[in-house]
Design a protein that fits this description.
The chain is mainly β. It has 4 helices and 15 strands. The protein has a domain of 193 residues: outer membrane lipoprotein receptor (LolB), chain A (Clam), CATH 2.50.20.
Length: 295
């Protein structure tokens, strides 16, 4: 499902199901051993650093060394929307159904809307990323452990764990991280890894992105990979697709709608806060501050 909240208007979107999506059972990659929760703050407008968005992110670490990092805010929001729209489950693949979402009236979990999911060490020695832009899902694979860390003598205590400080530069940003050798796992949120201990906190020096661990728990259960019809791409090409969408979301959605066949349909309505049709003659854009800046 696609929903988007724009600054000066409600967005009401009618969506038809995509053929083949969510029809295959997920692939089981590993068995979950440890689950870590992070609170992530991100700044969308670099001129307003006091305004940020918050997401609850989850890192699953498997017994065979595979991990999965995903946006739990999105998962909870999607579950609520599906419960409020039972026709979603009843609509066959390729069929059309209408789901109306008023994002200003529904009190749902909010966040950045980031759809990125990161799988480390899958395939072995590599990192796989999936993402979604509008109704298209993408995936790419790249080498893991590309961060070159410098471990500093600074120490601190986070969540009762002894931590050490480390710094690195990665794809246009400088980062400061705190890791704990008491949990000797080469892991962390997002793509962060490569230290002799679990990363409990990391931020870029401009304070655009802050990842803070809020809890750890031992759990059982599968680490799953959704079997969707991904468009295979690479990191830089996907970044350009996302930037184009944020620069002109209305144009991108209208182009997507007009290019779809009869089995996939998206009807888009832009409305003002009073419910009347919004003025679509003015340019529309969304502030965008990607975490990777090297493209």
């Amino acid at each position: 499902m696609l929903s988007l909240s724009l600054a000066s208007a409600q967005t009401v979107i009618s969506i038809g199901t995509m053929a083949g999506q969510n029809q295959k059972p997920p692939k089981i990659l590993d068995e979950n051993m440890l689950q870590i929760t992070y609170e992530v703050r991100s700044v969308r407008d670099t001129l307003e650093l006091d305004k940020f968005e918050e997401d609850v992110m989850v890192l699953q670490i498997g017994k065979q060394g595979i991990s999965k990092y995903y946006n739990d805010t999105n998962r909870r929001r999607d579950s609520i929307i599906r419960a409020m729209n039972p026709q979603m489950a009843a609509t066959p693949a390729g069929g059309n159904a209408t789901y109306r979402i008023n994002t200003q009236q529904m009190q749902l979990p909010r966040g950045s809307g980031d759809q990125t999911t990161v799988f480390k060490n899958w395939p072995t020695g590599s990192l796989t990323v999936t993402d979604q832009v509008m109704m298209n899902t993408y995936s790419y694979t790249e080498s893991s452990n590309q961060m070159q860390w410098e471990i500093l003598p600074d120490t601190d205590t986070l969540l009762s764990y002894f931590c050490q400080k480390a710094v690195t530069e990665f794809r246009g940003r400088k980062y400061e991280a705190w890791f704990t050798p008491e949990i000797p796992l080469n892991e962390g949120p997002w793509k962060f890894c490569g230290l002799p201990g679990l990363i409990l906190q990391v931020s870029d020096t401009r304070q655009h992105y802050l990842f803070q661990c809020t809890g750890l728990v031992q759990v059982d259960g599968p680490i799953e990979f959704a079997e969707l019809d991904y468009l295979k791409t690479n990191r830089r090409d996907l970044a350009r697709v996302k930037r184009k969408f944020y620069e002109d979301p209305r144009g991108a959605m209208e182009a997507m709608s007009s290019s779809m066949g009869t089995g996939r349909q998206v009807n888009i309505q832009f409305r003002s806060s009073d419910g009347s049709p919004a003025d679509t003659s003015r340019p529309m854009s969304i502030k965008y501050n990607p975490i990777e800046l090297d493209y």
